[in-house]
Amino acid sequence: MSQQAIGNFIAQCRENIKITRGALGERLGVSNKKVTGWEEGKALPGAEIYEPLCRVLGVEVSEMLCGKKLKEAEK
Questions:
Q1: pTM above 0.90, yes or no
Q2: How many other C-beta atoms are found inside a 10 Å radius of the C-beta of residue 53?
Q3: Do 53 and 23 form a contact (C-beta atoms < 8 A)?
Q4: What is the 3-state secondary structure (H, E, C) of the chain?
Q5: How many angstroms separate the CA atoms of 61 and 63, rounded?
Q6: CB 41 within 8 A of CB 4
Q7: Distance between CA atoms of 65 and 6, rounded to whole angstroms?
Q8: How confident is the model over 2-33, as pLDDT tens digits?
Q9: Which of 30, 56, 55, 52 has its CA nearest to residue 43?
Q10: Planar angle of CA 27, 41, 8, nearest 5 degrees
């Protein structure tokens, strides 16, 4: 999936749980500038961030990598 699709998915999930970019960054130990870069499709999270990011956002790593919510059969 494209960086842009993953970024859009991160933004959507973050908004769904009603936290700011700064709050998400704080929970992950990164700057809100880094979160902004992810959401704008300018960068991807590092491999070490995917699991904690998914845990905070309440999604599966497979969904994050696809940039969308998956049905049970697709996971």
A1: yes
A2: 23
A3: no
A4: CCHHHHHHHHHHHHHHCCCCHHHHHHHHCCCHHHHHHHHCCCCCCCHHHHHHHHHHHCCCHHHHHHCCCCCHHHC
A5: 5
A6: yes
A7: 7
A8: 899 999 999 999 999 999 999 999 999 999 99
A9: 30
A10: 70
